[in-house]
Amino acid sequence: MKAGRERFEALYWRHHRDLAAFIRRRVPLDAVEDVLAETFVVAWRRLRDIPGEERAWLFGVARNVIRNAYRAEARQRALHVRVAEEATDRVDSFDDAIATRAELAHAWNQLSETEQEVIALVAWDDLSNAEAAQVLGVTTSAYAVRLFRARRRLLHLLERSAGGAR
Amino acid sequence: MRRPLLDAVRGLDPAAGAPEIDGEAMLARIRASAQGARKDDVAHLVPRRPSRPVRRLAVGAAALSAVLVLALVLTLTQGGGQAYATWVAQPTLVPAETAGAICPEEAGGPPPIPVEPVLAERRGEYTFVVLVGDNVFMECLISTAGEELFVVTQAAESGVEGALDLGEAPALVVVPGVPWDPDPGEGPVTTVMGVASEEVTGVRVTTTDGVSADAAVADGWWSVWFPGEVEIDDDLLLTTPDGESTVSLEGLLAPGLGYG
Q: Counting Cβ atoms within 10 Å, is residue B249 exposed (0-12), middle (13-18) or buried (19+)?
């Protein structure tokens, strides 16, 4: 029992910040702590079942908690971003350097919820493809294909948006 | 390898700069909550494992594949209105330089990078060409159905430096089964391609529906495409002078291309 508690607390301290950020991107601020607590209660109850890829497993639990509790209430923030229209600073790291942050945000918000989630898992949550696939419950190659398509669509929306703005 | 688009998206992170939670207080809350929860209360919140394609019994695999391929070819060739009706599972290698003459001469960029055709394979009335340049590769599907050749669709992947290094692997997968829906084509197609060492003489790719097709192999590259938007099975059959071996597609994904 003591060993279990120690393992759980080590797990908690390793991942609670990343997990809180993952949740913060997906639910209103006042719900973050509720989801975080419920996720770790699940982890405590299923401590023996947690696989080696514990971070991806925890994110998967949090995703299920959010879907279970918040989808029906339409309270999910759905990974939308708010960027002021006057945010005209160039996105430095983007190869073409043609898009402003506002254009990128506009293109991002036109993606479907599924497309946003596929990209957000690697871009915001800093997961590997294998971890992101585990969060979604699909194979790595299936995830890779989804990511390829989502990136291509975002590029297409961005090119259209940036082209129209010029 | 950098992924510029993802780097740019990273800058939109809505959680950046958010206040930290009180870690000790949260842990105390979790401990208190955990006392009251029953183990079976949480089963529906545990992530499901990905479903894997059912692996066929080795004894029946070859026969089953052959039957399915034959059935597909018969269906496609006798169906009249079927999309890509002339597609066949065994390609014919054609001279890459000639076939690729109508494909783009440059890709990627800016600035655009010159590309050269390295592999061209014909399946019925369509020819698929792989073009390669410095740090870039390109797929180009050509229709030869009518009197006039035209490019049905093309796609390039740039920034591939390092991703094509085989190391100890006999082959790598650089496109793991990506569907396209070209406007002037006959509907979606799904492409799989990669690089291979000199000892690899054959690559057989199978869909999760059980349709197998042989890749064309030339000049260190291999490619195959299927009519329709299909899911690719994880098993690849490689042929080398030592014989045939089944390897995992997922295990051969080229690093750094957003797949691995």
A: buried
Residue B114 has pLDDT above 60, yes or no: yes
Q: Is residue B76 part of a domain?
A: yes
Query: What ipTM score was computed for the predicted complex, to two decimals?
Result: 0.79
**Residue among A20, A101, A139 minimizing CB distance to B50:** A139
> Is the minimum CB–CB distance between B234 and chain A shorter than 8 Å?
yes
User: A36: closest CA among A62, A11, A55, A4?
Assistant: A62
> Which residues in chain A are contacts of B47 at CB distance < 8 A?
57, 60-61, 63-64, 134-135, 137
**Record: contact B259-A141, CB cut-off 8 A:** yes
DSSP state of B112: P
Structural domains of chain A, count: 2
Coil, strand or helix: which one is A148?
A: helix
Task: Give the per-residue pLDDT at B101.
Answer: 84
User: With contact defined as beta carbons under 8 Å apart, do A152 and B3 qualify?
Assistant: no
Average pLDDT over every residue of A5-31? 92
pLDDT digits (tens, 9 = 90+) for B158-185: 667 777 888 889 999 998 888 777 666 6
- The C-alpha atoms of residue B21 and residue B27 are separated, in whole angstroms, by 11
Structural domain that includes position B86: 60-252
Task: Work out the minimum CA distance from B112 to partner chain A, whole angstroms.
Answer: 12
The answer to whether the CB of B21 falls within 8 A of the CB of A33 is yes
Q: What are the backbone dihedrals phi and psi of residue B106, each rounded to the nearest 5 degrees, phi first?
A: -135, 155
State which residues form the domain around A56. 2-70
Class of residue B8 by CB neighbours under 10 A (exposed 0-12, middle 13-18, buried 19+)? buried
CATH code: domain of residue A63: 1.10.1740.10
Task: Give the relative orientation of helices A113-123 and A140-165 as an angle to the nearest 10 degrees.
Answer: 100
Q: Which of chain B's residues have a Cβ under 8 Å away from the Cβ of A149?
A: 178-179
Quick one: closest CA in A to B30, which residue?
A37
- Is the domain of A105 the same as that of A65? no
Angle in degrees, CA A127, A133, A134, rounded to 5: 90
The domain tally of chain B equals: 1
Close Cβ partners of B3 (under 8 Å, ≥ 6 residues apart): B159, B258
Residue B127 has pLDDT above 80, yes or no: yes
Say which DSSP state B101 is in: G
Closest residue, chain B, to A64 (C-alpha): B45
